Amino acid sequence: MICQAYKDxxxxxxxxxxxxxxxxxFDPTVVYSYEDLEYYDSLSFRFEKAVExxxxxxxxxxxxxxxxxxxxxxxxxxxxxKIGIINNLEDYMEAKLLRNKVVHAYLPEKLEEIYSTVxxxxxxxxxxxxxxxxxxxxxxxx
Length: 142
Fold this sequence. Notes:
- This is DUF86 domain-containing protein.
- By secondary structure, the chain is an all-alpha fold.
- The protein has one domain: Four Helix Bundle (Hemerythrin (Met), subunit A).
- 79% of the residues lie in helices and 0% in strands.
- It is built from 5 helices and no strands.
- The protein has helices at 2-21, 34-66, 73-82, 89-104, 108-140.
- Helix 2 runs antiparallel to helix 4 (89-104).
- It starts with a helix and ends with a helix.
């Protein structure tokens, strides 16, 4: 179960990493073609999916390690911080909130800020994934 959750997370992280490698800041003064906008839609979707997969993985890992689930997301993230697989739980709280914003934002001036934050948080997720990968290899041995 934990190994499958890790593989699912890894797949979503790799897709996010690919989209991030093509990132160009969104410019609200530019009239983008549908093709150009498709990239930003893809980045948004992959960010949303990766955030959900991180939270799903954390839930599975918590159950695996402790045999029970925390009552709140914050408590779960504190446990992930404690075992050293994430740096800052606040980044994940922000990512969860941003994920909800991305779904409802279509005003160009808001999109500039949103995509900039998506880029920043995606880089943090990718860094933490490296720690997760090491933890899984050394501690869980998937």
